[in-house]
Design goal:
The complex is a heterodimer of chains A (about 325) and B (about 525). Helix content of chain A is about 50%, strand content about 20%. Chain A is α/β, with parallel strands linked by helices and about 325 residues long. Chain A folds into two domains: about 1-220, P-loop containing nucleotide triphosphate hydrolases (Rossmann fold, 3-Layer(aba) Sandwich), CATH 3.40.50.300; about 225-325, Orthogonal Bundle (Helicase, Ruva Protein, domain 3), CATH 1.10.8. Chain B is an all-alpha fold and about 525 residues long. Chain B is built from 18 helices and no strands. In chain B, helix 7 packs antiparallel against helix 8, helix 7 (about 160-195) packs antiparallel against helix 16 and helix 17 runs antiparallel to helix 18. The N and C termini of chain B lie far apart (about 145 Å). Classes of the chains: A alpha/beta (about 325), B mainly alpha (about 525).
């Protein structure tokens, strides 16, 4: 009974904490409820998020607010074309210690809990790839020494879709490391009004810390316990496999417009995210609707269009949504 | 926890039971559709052809229905997992029941699993598995019922009147053919027994016997009629091979001449009465003895001269009787010459004459046997023709075959009468083609004789006379112009032909509508 209550309590606490975080973020961030929820899901699942949107939509503000809500260290890197990997990861510098010269590793801005990688697509591929190990392994290896980053660790990257000059599109390998890719849309008239009220007045909302890193890790553990039925798991697998054009179950538009489909990492993403989504809906099991709810943000950056698809302006989100019926 | 699992299991099991019950109902309905559909199709095929559907054919629609029922149920029945998925979807449990069922099957006992089971149990408490019961498909049932009723109606339909008549006819024909076979076999046997040995040999024919033995028994009137015609043709061919008309004609003429003379009167009488055996005996009597008396010789000479006298007028007769008579006559004349020359006849000559007499006698005996054989075959043919008549009358309404119905008894109650107004010569798929029995040209007994006209210069009727007149006119003109003919003769001939010409012109003008003086 105690165990059951603790699990039940854990689940209840999970939902409560989530709601608190969301509500607190909502104090400052206007609208974007789905985006906020999905960012939180990614964070709880231990994943990284790529936020895409035109300038001025509050991408950086969202990440900054999240960092304020969570009692976690926060760093921001503004990526520029001249940014070097050492500027991101850190470097060894010579220091004077007790009269002798020694190399000492100076930690870069990645050594934090929440890293905001602003306009990540402005950095060179070399600098972008410096984040690969950080995002996947959550370690930094410098001079043969591996430095483990403190958990929880999240990279929230932003990129601007319209600035094509002087940008370096993220390679597929790096894109695949992002848990979710979320698009931030233009707020409505009313929402812009609220934004103006909250940000241009004398008083601005005060954001309280409502969750600690430890609690985030606990929430992750709770989510991992949610059972997934074989049918739902099979559905998930079929969904991922159907994004591959050579698959026999792939529908016509996938076969025609997709160059490469999602990897097994995408299935892991769907599993983790669907579990959290199920808990948020008050269920102790994962349903197909949970998988569908997280499929678009989890798969759209992993499904690569071919030339014809790009020329036709096909939306990967639409391709993924069409798969729900066929799978 | 056990109770919760039981409740979930019970819910799943109930759902499965209801779903499978629905599948069985649907299987039954589709089986009915198959039964009705196939039954109606089979019924239509038979009814459109006027036949009653044989009852044993019900096996096919029933077999089809059973196959459809089993196949449909096997294909659409719900396994436990399928029933759980269907129930989950129906009651919108968001895979809760599926997950709970999996936990139960795999005996998962973690806290989270128990929470999930409780959660699912709370949700299913609001639902009744009976809601999964199949909503009765009225349209499908209506269609099935309609098809079944239609098939029952079609299957209960009796044979059409035409088919019934055709069946009766077939039965009658079958009986008739059996009767005919017996009759013909008996008739053939009697024929063989009653005829003398030599005559019986002439009509002995294994092919004929085989044809009668292999008489058709299938009840098809056309086949029976065809076989009867074949037998009749065969008999006619046999008769033709035993043709004695030429011999009889010759001997009749000879008889008339022979009867005029006292010496040959007996022979002539026998021949005139067509008692050829008797005539043969008379010829035997006419044989020369060793003495070869003048009376004997005179008698023979008389006969020979009669034969000789007749020979010229009967030159077209190619019969064996004529040939043997001529040969006999030659031998007799040869003997007479020898006797005149040498004063006596040699035994060689005598033997030759006697031999020729025997030969002619034998010829007459053979003729007698052939006549008897022909007569017997005629009787057989008459019997056959009676059978043909009987067979033909089977086709007519109220016709009597060999069923033993007496004329005027009519059909029994309920049979009805076929008052078809259709022309009997019109073809019908139910009644078949009426058989027109056609005779075989030149095979019947005929009293007429076709004579070849002698060659001549006769003109044909119609416009031939005009051509002849023109020819005569040219002849006249040629005659008139001749210098060696006296003038008075020319004048007379010319005047004669002018008169004729005037008459002809008058006839022609009257035909054309004008008249010349």
């Amino acid at each position: 009974m105690e165990n059951q209550q603790s699990v039940e309590e854990s689940v209840a606490k999970f939902a409560e904490t989530f709601s608190k975080i969301k509500a607190e973020v909502g104090q400052f961030i206007v609208g974007q409820e789905t985006v906020v929820e999905q960012v939180l899901i990614a964070i709880i699942a231990g994943g990284h998020v790529l936020l895409e949107g035109v300038p001025g939509l509050g991408k950086t503000a969202l990440v900054h607010t999240l960092s304020q809500v969570m009692d976690l260290n926060f760093s921001r890197i503004q990526f520029t074309p001249d940014l070097l990997p050492a500027d991101v990861l850190g470097t060894n510098i010579m220091v004077d210690r007790d009269g002798s010269k020694a190399f000492e590793f100076q930690q870069g801005p990645v050594f934090t809990n929440i890293l905001l990688a602003d306009e990540i697509n402005r950095a060179t591929p070399k600098t972008q790839s410096a984040l690969l190990e950080v995002m996947q392994e959550k370690t930094v290896t410098m001079g043969g020494i591996t430095h483990t980053l403190e958990k929880p660790y999240f990279v929230l990257a932003t990129q601007n879709p319209i600035e094509m000059d002087g940008t370096y599109p993220l390679p597929e390998a790096q894109l695949d490391r992002f848990f979710f890719k979320l698009s931030i849309s233009l707020p409505s008239h009313k929402e812009i009004g609220l934004i103006l009220d909250r940000t241009t007045g004398v008083e601005t909302p005060t954001i309280k810390k409502v969750v600690s890193g430890k609690e985030i890790l606990e929430m992750e553990q709770v989510a991992k316990q949610v059972p997934v039925a074989e049918d739902v798991r099979d559905y998930m697998i079929r969904l991922v496999l159907a994004t591959h054009p050579e698959n026999e179950n792939a529908p016509h538009n996938v076969a025609r417009f997709v160059r490469y489909g999602a990897s097994p990492r995408a299935a892991q993403t769907l599993m983790a995210a669907a579990r959290i989504h199920a808990l948020l809906r008050g269920r102790y099991h994962v349903a197909v609707e949970d998988v569908n709810a997280v499929a678009v943000p989890g798969l759209c950056h992993r499904v690569l269009l071919n030339f014809e698809g790009e020329a036709e302006g096909i939306s990967t989100a639409k391709i993924i949504e069409d798969l729900f019926e066929s799978c | 926890m056990k109770k919760i699992k039981e409740q979930i299991n019970e819910f799943s099991a109930s759902g499965q039971a209801y779903l499978n019950a629905g599948a069985r109902v649907l299987a039954g309905l589709w089986a009915l559709v198959a039964l009705g559909g196939v039954g109606s199709l089979v019924g239509l095929i038979f009814v459109t052809r006027g036949h009653r559907v044989p009852l044993w054919l019900i096996l096919f629609p029933v077999a089809m229905a059973v196959t459809v029922a089993i196949g449909f149920y096997l294909r659409n029945r719900y396994s436990r997992h399928q029933a759980v998925c269907e129930s989950d979807h129906f009651f919108e449990l968001n895979e809760g029941l599926i997950t709970a069922d999996e936990h139960i099957r795999k005996n998962r006992e973690e806290e989270i699993h128990r929470l999930q089971l409780e959660h699912t149990q709370r949700r299913i408490e609001r639902h009744d598995p009976a809601a999964l019961r199949l909503r009765f498909p009225r349209k499908l049932f209506g269609v099935a019922l309609l098809l079944v009723v239609a098939s029952v109606v079609l299957w209960m339909k009796d044979d059409s009147l035409a088919v019934q008549n055709a069946k009766r006819e077939r039965a009658a024909i079958r009986a008739l053919s059996k009767e005919l076979e017996e009759e013909l076999s008996n008739a053939l046997e009697d024929l063989q027994k009653k005829l003398e040995k030599e005559s019986a040999e002439l009509v002995k024919d294994p092919a004929l016997k085989k044809m009668i033995e292999e008489f058709p028994k299938d009840g098809d009137r056309k086949t029976v009629m065809r076989r009867l015609s074949e037998i009749d043709l065969h008999l006619a061919e046999m008769q033709a091979s035993l043709d004695t008309r030429a011999d009889e004609k010759y001997l009749k003429e000879l008889a008339a001449e022979l009867s005029k003379s006292r010496e040959t009167a007996a022979l002539g009488k026998a021949l005139s009465r067509k008692k050829y055996k008797q005539a043969s005996k008379e010829l035997e009597k006419m044989k020369l003895s060793k003495k070869m008396s003048s009376a004997e010789q005179k008698r023979l000479s008389k006969m020979a001269s009669t034969i000789e006298k007749m020979d010229a007028s009967m030159s077209s007769n190619k019969s064996a009787s004529r040939r043997s008579a001529r040969e006999m006559s030659k031998q007799i004349q040869k003997m007479s010459k020898q006797c005149k020359k040498s004063g006596k006849c040699s035994s060689q000559c005598r033997n030759a004459v006697n031999k020729s007499l025997s030969k002619s006698g034998q010829c007459m005996q053979t003729l007698s046997q052939r006549r008897k054989a022909r007569s017997a075959l005629s009787k057989l043919r008459r019997k056959l023709q009676q059978g043909q008549k009987k067979c033909s009358s089977c086709n007519k309404p109220g016709g009597q075959c060999c069923s033993g119905k007496k004329p005027g008894t009519g059909l029994k109650a309920g049979d009805g009468v076929n008052r078809s107004r259709r022309d009997p010569s019109e073809k019908s798929p139910n009644t078949g083609n009426p058989e027109h029995l056609t005779g075989i040209l030149n095979e019947g007994d005929s009293e007429k004789e076709i004579l070849n006209a002698s060659s001549g210069t006769g003109s044909r009727s119609g416009g031939g006379s005009k051509n002849s007149a023109a020819g005569y006119k040219h002849q006249l003109e040629a005659f008139v112009e001749r210098e060696d003919v006296p003038e008075e003769m020319k004048f007379g001939v010319k005047k004669y032909f002018d008169k004729i010409h005037r008459l002809d012109s008058g006839v022609e003008d009257s035909e054309s509508g004008t008249k010349k003086p």
